[in-house]
Known about the structure:
Quinone Oxidoreductase, Chain A, domain 1; alpha/beta; Rossmann fold; six-stranded mixed β-sheet; seven-stranded mixed β-sheet
Amino acid sequence: MKAVTFDGTTVAITEVDLDEPKSGEVRVRVTAAGVCHSDLHVIRGEWDVPMPLVMGHEGSGVVDAIGAGVTDLAVGDHVVLSWVPNCGECRYCLLGRPAQCELVANVVATQGVLYDGTSRLSHNGKTVHHYLGVSSFAEFVVVPESGAIKVRDDAPLDVIALVGCAVATGVGAVRNTAKLTAGSTAAVIGCGGVGLSVIQGARLEKASLILAVDVAADKLDLARKLGATHTLLVEPGMNVPEAMKALVPEGLDFVFDAIGKIITTEQAIHALGLGGSAVVVGLPPTGQTATFDPLVLAEADQRILGCNYGSTVPKRDIPRLVDELMAGDLDLESMISARRPLDEAESALADLNAGAALRQLLLP
Length: 364
């Protein structure tokens, strides 16, 4: 099959062999794959992942084959791919926190393999690794059963690819991680795919004020369309927390860092009001350190919350998000800046890196 591979230096279209699904696994024909900043972290060498690999972790498709023991899925089911194919048996899964699944963290994500410690991907007899248990920049994927979430058949198969990462992460950050209550004030730093999903989540949870912060005016225009009540265009040299407090003098109840740079995390913390929470949604490069004044944090009863995958419970949250899309409560089409063939993956990544695109879909 055709897939987009990366060996540490080169993004390439490669003919890759894909094994049949083993016990507890399914094969999915990929309909669409979203291009995400987490893919850029790999290209930039900011995350330590096994290589070579097939890229991509956001996607949707149709179940094409099932392995032994699969009970929840059948050939022909429409699915959203989840990059947390939780085992359901570890301590965190049993606590209802599948986003922290130990098997995913210790094996799937870090070793580039599936549950049994092996890959289903190869090229010329040599192992090719999975990326975050998905590898959606390909014509087909083999994933654990819990990595393919069944959704309704009438949802647009290309659009729902975004639910697998950007939307689940952004809306989940609001609902699951922050537990934002109606009437709260919220700000989002960074209006890419995840940030725009945070804005939509804040709208759905009835925040009284939603401030969108970005360096690009066109992204702020879209943020208003999707639910932001106020916008802040960041200019060179601007003191962003002070500019945010000029709009909300008492400080904000929730500030979501949807970028994941040290400076934006610190800005989120400094813009909080009494009892406020800074939610770190965007993922920074490995090993970087942010600073804050712990006395101010304690005296103001503030919190810093880490957010992995929107604290999502995939089997519960992904079908709900698709239902909200179909009910007209979520607007995902406006977040899609381009649909491109798989062969244009490298160009799509370059456009994302340059800030010239929101969510792009690769269509195998």
